């Protein structure tokens, strides 16, 4: 069995794509009455959109941005790092030394045509709720 090809970065997400993702994520959060922060970065890690919903905690601004950046630079959802860290393995402890790492659920790469075009990070509620809102945003692009 061969190893799958590594994920590649593609062209940056467009503003229209980001707006579509943002609208779907905000709709999901609003429908649940969850005040959240939604961050979307492009394939270079630069902010494209940041939305702080009314009554979202201020600490979630930096956390949402960091989740998006982590998902982008490491090419994987942030919940995988959270699982490694909480699993009590030596690999999990090594994560603590990695720069620019947020090991909290709620960050996902944004894929289009098989390439990473950006990432989304959500913060404000529980880990599962953050992921639910992020997934709703991602589903809007598919």
Polypeptide structure, described:
This protein has helices at 15-31, 59-73, 79-86, 90-94, 127-141; strands spanning 8-9, 37-42, 47-52, 107-112, 115-123. It has 142 residues and is of the alpha+beta class. It has one domain: Haem-degrading domain (Beta-Lactamase), CATH 3.30.450.150. Strands 1, 2, 3, 4 and 5 form a 5-stranded mixed β-sheet that branches. Strand 4 (107-112) and strand 5 form a beta hairpin. Helix 1 packs across helix 5 (127-141). The longest helix has 17 residues, at 15-31. The chain starts with 7 loop residues before the first strand and ends with a helix.
Regions with little confidence, pLDDT below 50 for 5+ residues: none
Number of strands: 5
Silhouette:
globular
| Major beta-sheet overview | 5 strands, mixed
Counting copies of identical and different chains, the oligomeric state is single chain
- CATH fold category name: Beta-Lactamase
The end-to-end span amounts to: 29 Å
Sheet/helix structural class: alpha+beta
Number of domains: 1
